[in-house]
Amino acid sequence: MVSIKKKKAKRVERAYTNARKRIEMRGSGYERTSVRAPEGMKFFQFKKAGLYYLEVLPYTVGEGNLYADPGAVHYERTYYAHPRIGADSNTYICPTKTFKTKCPICQERAKLEKAGRDRESLKELEPKERQLYLVFDTKDPEAGVQILDCSYFLFGKQLDATINNADEDEDFPNFFHVEDGLTLKLGVDEKSFNGNKFFAVETVGFKPRKVPLDETLGEALEDLPCLDDLLIQTDYAKLKAIFREGDADDEDEDEDEPVAKKKSKKPAPVKRSKASVEEEDEEDDSD
Q: What are phi and psi of 35, to 5 degrees?
């Protein structure tokens, strides 16, 4: 009887995905369209009312920061964003206010304003001021360095006011310095808007650090990301298509072209999808 030798199966290299990653991505609720986080770094959130003790970490400035020159050591990245854009009501960074390039949404707003549209409806298209910070929660050291992405009116405004009202002998403006900086003591309150709850910083205090920042974080201080590089810049054509929901009749525009006045073929409708709590509160406070 002739024996039949079985061929050894050839091992095939397969680029498998990760089931846990899929679960984590689904649980996050949405994919950010304005800010990206470095691999392994999470976004910080205020999860309940009470006191928070945060270290705001300094970083080396890249290109485009609105309040610091490249190479300087700074503590925040201000940017402007349009919320509730497109069919998925996502947030996109305003190219005009943030990158000094053309923005189809701002162009539409200017056109509607010229046509006599009332201010209340135009608020839907106004870019909102937001800020990025690198933070370390002293009460949750296991979380490591995190990114705080928040409305200026829910945190930065209170921080600015506290620093601006400090006495000359109070070293508040240097709170983010590695050597002689201060820990932020934040009083966070729970609020409600249209039946929805959210958290806002009510008070900002400064405390001497118990342990020097370089001892707390060690080499991690040398590997901090540049906040300016974390902003997602959507090119003009793509942002226009999202805003107009892919209207095929729209004229083509060069992406990232400097701001200029041009006529468009027809106005896009003002979208009035349900706003997030933070965005609604921000609009209310900015009046």
A: -135, 135
